[in-house]
Design a protein that fits this description.
Strands 3-2-1-4-5-6-7-8 form an eight-stranded mixed beta sheet, with helices on both faces. Helix 4 links the parallel strand 4 and strand 5. It has two domains: 178 residues, 3-Layer(aba) Sandwich (Rossmann fold), CATH 3.40.50; 170 residues, Orthogonal Bundle (N-(1-d-carboxylethyl)-l-norvaline Dehydrogenase, domain 2), CATH 1.10.1040.50. Helices cover 50% and strands 11% of the residues. It starts with a strand and ends in a 17-residue tail after the last helix. The protein is α/β, with parallel strands linked by helices. Bound molecules: nicotinamide-adenine-dinucleotide (NAD). Nicotinamide-adenine-dinucleotide (NAD) binds next to helix 1, helix 4 and strand 6.
Length: 365
């Protein structure tokens, strides 16, 4: 099925950004929110985005006008009945989303695809609240969705594989880089991004370095455009804590660090000073911890076939701005160096050695 008409339910940060992207790429969109003012704000924000694109010479006046005209407000969920695809982007609350999917199931014809933008809930659990669940999937956009090119396309237990292929084509047609993912805690990208920030917080708690030093080392270790504390402050410590807590079923390695809990529960940003000169031994110790936070979850995700090495690296490079994406970096460092980096977690947390460790050196081939 060709997707031309899209409905978005929830016009907050993500719904607004997704609508902006779709309008720009020729899709006809209607937005619904239980607060009508959120829909007005989303459409106004999209029009401002298109106007800035015109100023930067990336869009013509006519294209910006046409993109804005493609975005409409829905007075109620009934307006979703003629859509090819409905994307849900309401609050991250299981009961709220499940209730919405039961309501949508009564309104939408069976041909309408339904997607959730959930970050932390299991797609397969939400799928149980959808009539004709084979048409349901996860489309996990990254913020800001009008700019960030990555979308995780998540197959739930009951999703029809043809629906995934359609969604991959839809993402490409709307200027996105889709990553094919299995339904799993944190999908492909948060699976290692959250533990990476958590290892940064553990390194801070253990006195391995200051926030500024850890941020500076991250720029070298994974080629991050900005360090983990700077990024956590942007995401908001409360949201980051929620995301890492969501990974807790994966074992004690994923349990939140003390400073992560402290800052997250108070939703207080991390203070970041100046890094200054960092002694070599300290630099190495911090780098090892950050790389552990990335490598162990990625190898486990490869064992679980959550995503391919190429897709994991694309997500790291494009969604997180890691110039040294994990699978390519592990291949470059080699198996014995990766084994040395993993050792503290394998011993300290009793984590079984990931089978994918044996493939390090040729993960990307
Ligand atoms: N913010 C991010 O960085 C980010 C990134 C990826 C995914 N997500 C996920 O996207 C979803 C939305 O997050 P957000 O940051 O845009 O939230 P948000 O709070 O900015 O917006 C949510 C919107 O949903 C509306 N809403 C709530 N209940 C509703 C209902 N029953 N019907 C219609 N509208 C309803 C609210 O009025 C609000 O405008 C969440 O599941 C979140 O986990 C967020």
């Amino acid at each position: 099925m060709t997707i031309a008409k899209v409905g978005i339910v929830g016009a907050g940060t993500m719904g607004s950004g997704i609508a902006t992207n779709l309008g720009q790429h020729g899709l006809e969109v209607v937005l619904y929110d239980s607060r009508p003012e959120a829909v007005e704000a989303a459409i106004a924000s999209a029009r401002r985005f298109y106007a800035r694109q015109v100023e930067k010479g990336r869009m013509s006046d006519e294209a910006a006008e046409a993109a804005g005209a493609r975005l409409g407000a829905a007075a109620d969920l009934g307006a979703m009945a003629d859509r090819d695809l409905v994307i849900e982007a309401v609050f991250e609350d299981f009961a709220l989303k499940a209730d919405l999917f039961r309501t949508l199931s009564d309104i939408l014809p069976e041909r309408t695809r339904i997607a959730t933008n959930t970050s932390c809930l299991r797609v397969s659990d939400l799928q149980r609240h959808v009539a004709a669940p084979a048409r349901f999937l996860g489309l996990h956009y990254f913020s800001p969705a009008q700019i960030n090119p990555v979308v995780e396309v998540v197959r739930g237990e009951a999703t029809d594989p043809a629906v995934i292929e359609e969604a991959l084509a839809f993402c490409r047609a709307t200027g996105k880089l889709p990553l094919r993912c299995r339904d799993s805690y944190g999908f492909a990208i948060n699976r290692f991004f959250c533990p990476y920030t958590n290892e940064a917080a553990r390194a801070l708690d253990e006195g391995l370095g200051t926030t500024a030093e850890i941020d500076a080392v991250a720029k070298e270790a994974v080629g991050a455009a900005a360090g983990p504390f700077f990024v956590m402050n942007i995401i908001k410590p409360r949201i980051n804590l929620h995301a890492i807590r969501n990974l807790s079923p994966l074992g004690p390695f994923y349990a939140p660090a003390a400073s992560m809990i402290e800052h997250g529960e108070a939703d207080r940003p991390f203070a970041i000073g100046e890094a200054g000169e960092i002694p070599e031994a300290r630099r190495r110790a911090i780098a090892d911890r950050l790389l552990l936070g990335v490598f162990l979850p990625v190898l486990q995700a490869l064992d679980e076939e959550v995503a391919s090495p190429a897709d994991i690296d694309t997500g790291a490079r494009e969604a997180l701005r890691f110039a040294k994406p994990p699978c390519a970096l592990m291949d470059e460092l080699g198996r014995s160096e990766v084994t040395r980096i993993l050792a503290p977690a394998l011993e300290g947390y009793g984590v079984p050695t990931p089978a994918a460790l044996a493939r390090v050196g040729s993960l990307r081939s």
